[in-house]
Amino acid sequence: QVHFEESGGGLVHPGESVRLSCEASGIIFRVFAMAWYRQVFGKELELVAKISRDGVIEYGDSMKGRVIISRDNEKRTVDLQMNNVNSGDSALYYCHADAADAGPQKYWGPGIQVTVSS
User: Fold this and answer.
1) In which band, very low, low, confident or very high, does the pLDDT at 38 lie, cut at 50, 70 and 90?
2) For the purposes of burial, counting CB atoms within 10 Å of the CB of 87, is it exposed (0-12), middle (13-18) or buried (19 or more)?
3) How confident is the model over 65-82, as pLDDT tens digits?
């Protein structure tokens, strides 16, 4: 059974850093492209960052320059380091897995809330 465990969210202050982690089980993690998306209240889902199975990284415009994505195939985790956060970064953050050319499988994590407030 596919399961994603997202962690690291919560309340943070403006200017601080926060690290989200997603641990996947039930998939062959190394063949999946992994990504983090977010949904700000009242807005559409948007890409924050993604990393291919080969380590190629793409960042969305919303947090470019303030975020770093990384993956550990041994631990089956994908992490998102967010720096200098602001109130506009308050959102539900979702972990996503895409088998891409390895197959049609796509999966979403349950989402984790990050709230930036003083």
Assistant:
1) very high
2) exposed
3) 999 999 999 999 999 999
